[in-house]
Amino acid sequence: MIATSAFTVFVIGISIHNQTQNINGIAFLILINGIVASSRLEMKAHTPKELVIGFLLGIIPQLLLLRFWL
Hints:
Elements: H1 2-18, H2 23-42, H3 48-69
Helix pairs in contact: 1-2, 1-3
């Protein structure tokens, strides 16, 4: 979750920085985030709380760096 959510925010940041509309890529990455989360739940590898923490651990550093980058 950390890697997929961080990459999703990174692609969103690239789209903002280059002023392009990469809607298909962003939608695909959001879909991948959901698939990864549901597969981790299905395999009983993580609890929902752990997935939310992983999601936030991936997004927060990217958002902090995005502020300085843009």
